[in-house]
DNA sequence: TATTGTTATACTCTATAACTATA
DNA sequence: TATAGTTATAGAGTATAACAATA
């Protein structure tokens, strides 16, 4: 257990708290906007946006779940919700009959289009407004490095428990 | 509605996504640790930690809610949970009988103490490990500025709705 | 009348485990 | 046997509105 110094110094603590708080506030604000503009939760927006970016316009459930930190049952729940609203379709794949291909409908794409400008506006006003261009570049670089590191790091909290 | 450019360029988008993702991953990891080590949600930890930092060791419900983005009923819910577990006490204030003074119990302080080392370890391993000292300083400075800006900005999503 | 806090209630989301069907 | 996905179910958290009590 390599825990050298027991405590965080004020600078470290400051960076930690600032990250948690800005992340929360930004996400909360974006969530509000998505809800108001399109009745979407953030996760639902992410699912639609991921589908929108998909080359074929369709993905398997498992592919959709990847990166969105999801239990499969949670994804099924959201997919059902989005399908009921007519924003996506689900169909069994011809290749592998176990898998389900998920695709954006025209209406789904419309919702995405409708929601996007406001989404961007919130990010601009809340996150980018107080920053200079070099600030944004440095921030993206630093947090990008942190993100890559976090992705590599095994979700250590899960390991010691089951299995 | 000053939305100059409709889209975010790659650098802006990168900073935005990196912030959302690192914030989520870090919070998720910390939440896991808090749950495993002390059966606490992040919000519960924040409540206990806020009480722990309070000069008198006790705060009014309203003071507790401030900054933790809470509906009052949500705070009541968490306070009930924490009180049942014996981590806090609630008592009517002698001064103003409408208010409730919340205080950390000895056991509450113990849980906080028990949970803290692991909490710090997670922050170190996930956030601080891949960063140099200047990185951390710059990151804290930049995000601190963003946080201050976000706090000032009225929760615009709430304004247009009710009263 | 305004403020503090609770209650009732409903809804969203998440997670686990059991289950079905295909490979 | 392993993989893809669904279902059942339960639990945590959140929000709104109505309410009671005090200032």
From TrEMBL, chains A, B:
It holds the Pfam family MarR_2. InterPro entries: HTH_MarR-typ, MarR/SlyA-like, WH-like_DNA-bd_sf, WH_DNA-bd_sf. SMART domains: HTH_MARR. Residues 138-163 are annotated as: Disordered. Residues 12-148 form the HTH marR-type domain. This is MarR family transcriptional regulator. It comes from Microbacterium flavum. The lineage of its organism: Bacteria, Bacillati, Actinomycetota, Actinomycetes, Micrococcales.
């Amino acid at each position: 257990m390599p825990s050298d110094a027991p405590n965080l110094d004020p600078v470290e603590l400051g960076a930690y708290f600032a990250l948690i708080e800005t992340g929360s506030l930004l996400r909360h604000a974006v969530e509000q906007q998505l809800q108001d503009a399109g009745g979407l939760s953030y996760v639902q927006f992410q699912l639609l946006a991921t589908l929108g970016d998909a080359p074929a316009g369709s993905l398997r459930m498992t592919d959709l779940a990847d990166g969105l930190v999801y239990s499969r049952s949670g994804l099924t729940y959201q997919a059902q919700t989005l399908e009921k609203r007519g924003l996506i379709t689900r169909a069994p794949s011809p290749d592998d009959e176990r898998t389900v291909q998920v695709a954006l409908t025209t209406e789904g794409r419309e919702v995405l289009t409708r929601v996007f400008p406001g989404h961007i506006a919130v990010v601009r006003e809340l996150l980018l407004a107080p920053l200079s261009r070099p600030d944004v570049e440095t921030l993206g670089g630093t947090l990008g490095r942190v993100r890559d590191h976090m992705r590599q790091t095994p979700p250590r909290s899960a390991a010691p428990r089951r299995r």
